[in-house]
Structures are given as C-alpha cells and as structure tokens.
Amino acid sequence: TQYATAAYTDNILDEFTYYGMDYIKDKYGVNWQAPSPKDKVKPTQEIVNDIAGECTLNAMEQYEQFPTALEDHFGGSQRASVIAACSGLTTSIATGNSNAGLNGWYLSMLMHKEGWSRLGFFGYDLQDQCGSTNSLSVRPDEGRIGEFPWSKLPKL
C-alpha cells in the first residue's frame, strides 16, 4: 500500500500536511517555506506528542466527515499510512530530526488503532504496527540505545 498511497491519496495527503504546516507555523513559529536552523523546535517527546497528535486527530476528523474516502483508502491501510505520513512529516520538519518524525509516525499509528480499532484488513495492518521497536523512544536490549550488542562479543 505504501507505493500506491501517493498516487491514490495525493490531494488528501497534501491537505493533511498543509494543516500540519500551518499548525507548526502558528504554534511554534516554524516557517516551512523559508526554513531556518533557528526556527527548529527541540525534539522532545512532548513536542512529538503535540504535533503528531494534532495532525492525527485533524486527519481522523476529516476522514469521518467523508465516509467514502474513509473506506475507499483500502479499508484502512492507506488511510493509516496517509495519516501517519502527515504526522511524521510535520514532526520532522518542525524539529529537523528524522527520529522525531519516526516517533510521530508510530504515535499516529497507535492513535489510529486506538481510535478506530484497526489499521487495515487481511493482515495489512502488521506492516504499520511493527515500528515501535525501531524507535529510540523504546529502550531495546536493556537500554543499550544505538549500540550493537554483537560488537562486544568475543571473536571465535
């Protein structure tokens, strides 16, 4: 569904992302049209929660106003990806941090699943749910963030 999303949902994804751009400009003073390093927002979990949460809730409300778009987007898989994409894009642009954008993407997926109880059908939601372990907000392997555990193993 990721490959077809841009072609089938272009205007909707644009609309949701422009909403996010307006949100970060109004709330944080980030001008996406003329980016500047001094405009970046510190990438904290609170910022990720705020930006991704706002984008996700706006997109879900928009989809609920147009039920045919809601179900036409592949029963949910494309819809989940579109909502997560606008959340991740907006968070990344505001913070200048790709990991913050990744956290925004996965937060959006979790909010979507919590709000509508599914992300897709026929198992297509698995691809969208397995991201939290790839995010540094989760402390994998007893908290050794960014460290390859096998690099400390003895050479045999």
UniProtKB/TrEMBL annotation:
Highest taxon listed in the record's lineage: Archaea
Alphabetized GO MF terms: coenzyme-B sulfoethylthiotransferase activity
InterPro entries listed in its UniProt record: Me_CoM_Rdtase_asu/bsu_C, Me_CoM_Rdtase_asu_C
Residue stretches making up the Methyl-coenzyme M reductase alpha subunit C-terminal domain: 1-119
SUPFAM superfamilies registered for this protein in UniProt: Methyl-coenzyme M reductase alpha and beta chain C-terminal domain (SSF48081)
Biological process terms in GO annotation: methanogenesis
Protein name: Methyl-coenzyme M reductase subunit A
